[in-house]
Amino acid sequence: MLPYFDSFFAYIYEYYQQRGLTCIALRSLFSLLRFAFVVLFSTFLVNCVDYDVLFYNRNTTLDGRPLPAKRAIHNAFIPRCYARINPLMSLALFLAALFWLAHLFRIFCRLVQFSEIRRFFISQLEIADSEMQNLSWAQVVERLCGVQKRLHLIVNREAITPLDVCQRILRHKNYFVALVYYNILPPKIRLPVLGHVHYLSNGLRFNLEWLLFWGPWSPWKGPYALKDEFKDPDKLPMIVRQLQRTLTIMAIANLIFFPFVFVYQVLFSFFSYSEHYQRDPNVFGMRKYSNYGREKLRHFNEMDHELDARLNKSYEFAARYTDQFISPLTQIIARNIAFVAASFFVVLCALTAIDEDTLKIEHVTTILSITGGAVLISRIFIPKENMVFCQHLLMQQIVANIHYAPRSWLANAHSTEIHKEFVQIFRMKTELLIEELLSPFLSPFILYFCVWKRVPEIVVFLHENTVTLEGLGDVCSLAQMNIARDGDTRLVSLNQSVCVDDTENNKNKVSTRRRRTPCGKVELSLLNFATQNPDWVPTGPEAEFIANVKDLVSTEVFGILENMENQRLLYQRSNNKSCFTNKRRKKITL
């Protein structure tokens, strides 16, 4: 099978997420074709098209042959254009070919492994690919736990729980979530136009994960265990220097490959967003949760599909909330720009409909494109006519789904400051596109000047927040969801054992600088995991906490229902009294 159980469970989850071997193979094939298309098509546009002929700036080909008055698209193609490729582009094509071949080899190895996973699904879990979309992940995990006694997937465990499976899949992800939650990563930088942002582009996240988890110089000596040096407090200064040295090498490597990565990033973004723009012209005005926002809002032990479902539920409310903070001055300017641009656009469209030769006039198509784009961009800053201002209600709905609720967000949802805090995690796609395009250039400098300074904090965090579990290896202690040790002290009323633990260890607070999580992070993670995995049976303080929360919710629901019943009876009595009074009045009148 697979050499490591972390990889085994991760492949099982990915196989479930991508709905079987056929879908995985097709996605892999089209990813290869898409990369080849971007490289070859961009090379063709640069070297094989005579733009002077295409734009009617010259009446002859490069060979001196005259061109017909009515030109076809093939007249602009340059024959034997491969001879015009310069050495720099040849190097870029060579590197692209090496990357494509390496990607092909990786896909082949993955498909071999996924074929084994498919056999495991069919023979052991009794799940065919056609049934995949009708099963929840919790049901798959239940079957995985069921075959442990028969197959002994983990040799030194008689039984495994959903938490064991989840912590193997999310071993590294839980560390990263904790680092983001404690604001150790990513660094907050100031960008032109965008201002201060928590910068976590896809490229920077790739570098950080390579540095911390699966690179050859990462803190891990294998898939299960941290290096022994990270567990020895006397060796931490040496580890800091080594990790900073590795970070310096990574920054230099990123700077060397910056031109090639940047060109591919621009081309891939251009083709991708062109397709999105064709489907939805408002794509650049839409918002999405940024990488930083997703990691900040993620619970410990929360799978990708669970996070997606939770954030998707909040999207409509989040979009409506941000739309309510458009400046009146911006609205006035946008309406007038849209009016003028739409006037030019409509007139030119009407003239084109009357006589299509209008398009032959120089720059007419350019004006149509600019005015049409101006109208679409202006619409972003014009609120809907039937919009109702209800910031507090929308924020309540947002918080109910994202599970992140600073008191100020709920109390002052109408303020501009809270709106600015919220849009740090719910960004415009245009801003995120700019960040991704800048990533190849910014990543080496962020790694060297910003992340380099955070290395001591990262090393201390790994040292203080790692526990070793039998049959599981080293995991983030916060992912254990031990509320007695790591819980929010403001929630002690829901779990008496937390209060006892604090009083007994009140004098041992020297090395617990980051042990407790604010905003109930551990408690919310515990409740979310118990909800997503109903077959999981917690023990100790965690079971007591969940039971107390259920009792509290039941009491509040009963109180709400009782209050509604009292209001109904009161309303009924008032109606009966009103009817009796009306009858008496009628008798007196008679």
Describe what this molecule looks like in 3D.
The chain has 590 residues and is mainly α. Among the domains are: 1-169, no CATH class; 287-430, no CATH class; 481-558, no CATH class. Helix content is 64%, strand content 4%. The protein has 23 helices and 6 strands. The strands form 3 sheets. The chain has a two-stranded antiparallel ribbon with strand order 1-2. A two-stranded antiparallel sheet has the order 3-4. Strands 5-6 form a two-stranded antiparallel ribbon.
Task: Spell out the key features of this protein.
autophagy, globular, 590 residues, mainly alpha, Autophagy-rel_prot_9, single chain, disordered C terminus, two-stranded antiparallel sheet, transmembrane helix, 64% helix, transmembrane
Strand order of the largest sheet: 1-2
Largest sheet: 2 strands, antiparallel
Count up the helices.
Answer: 23
Beta-strand residue percentage: under 5%
Overall average residue pLDDT: 85
Order of helices and strands: HHHHHHHHEEHHHEHHHHHHHEHEEHHHH
Choose one word for the global shape: globular
Instruction: Give the helix/strand class.
Output: mainly alpha
User: Separation of termini?
Assistant: 95 Å
Number-wise, the strands total 6
Radius of gyration: 30 Å
Helix content estimate: 55-70%
Spans where pLDDT lies below 50 across 5 or more residues: 497-515, 586-590
Family: Belongs to the ATG9 family.
Pfam families: ATG9
Subcellular location: Preautophagosomal structure membrane
Transmembrane segments: 21-46, 88-109, 247-271, 332-354, 361-382
